[in-house]
Amino acid sequence: MSVRVDLDDRSYDIIIEEGIFESFHESSIFEKYSNIVVITDENVYGLYEKTINSGHYKKVIVLPAGETTKQIQYLEEIWNQLVELKLDRASLIIVIGGGVIGDIGGFAAASYMRGIDFVQVPTTLLAQVDSSVGGKVGINHPGGKNILGAFHQPQAVFIDLNVLKTLPEREFKSGLGEVVKYGVIWDKDFFEFMEDNAEEILSMDAGVISTIIGRCCEIKADIVKQDEFECGIRAVLNYGHTAGHGLENVFHYEKILHGEGVIFGMVVEGIMAMHRGLFSKEDFEIQNRLIEKLNLGFKVPAFNMSEYLDAITLDKKNTNNSINFILPTKIGEVVKIDGVQFKEIENATVKALDLNLFQ
To answer: What is the domain extent for residue 338?
Structure first.
């Protein structure tokens, strides 16, 4: 299966194919580059060292695994190695890993020599359905998630379903948080497909997983085509992310996975929408039932509410000193709301924490 991201001279294909991880380096797309460097992490390299090295790249840069790698010191480490290798603007970076490696590796490509080409090879469900597509790259700052970065589209995205078989269960479920989000914001039929195939999703049925990855990529490609630089409709992709990033930040990106933050954020923001009269109680319960059906609930450790709210104020989606949220109006549709007050966020968060989903 192939999905085209249509952006004029920045267009590219997302190739979704079982086993492509073993052979993607043979693609003709790589022929024009003078030097090719791989950026990956210790976990991925430990699993696929032989396969990665079969590409005979100029260098493989291996970083620590985990969200804490998305910081300036590791970006500087990448820059230093690229300089030492004397990479020129005809060089290419291949990023092999999850969302963290895709984000920092893509930002290295965007910033080195004012931008060189890169290719995404995502190895987690979350990266395959979301972060590898659309050109958002960056790193975290102590003040907030992803607030240092750029828009830099890849030359291609290669997605292999087989690599998900080595993914820890918690990481796989984290990715499902983003998958559920697509149904809530954009496609009721897709949401109902997930309801009908929850068991197959959890058992990682190849046909069903291929369908959900393909549909998520189609949705994101459609949105990015309309709004590459997030000036309008692309903001709908941030449903669940404002409260979710606040939760990730309050634990310093160490205890909460990104997809878990999104799951929590969807419930918090669903409560906000319901209390505003935007989202019916019935649809809110339908959203939560799918989260339950996919076993995506998790215990949220105790945290400082003030720190959580402070983190939300620093979220990069806010504008003109106004806290902005994407809130659902029904399954398949959302709306942007500006000027949300702290008390509303706090009340919704407290109510979410009381639900069995997060006990």
So the answer is: 169-354
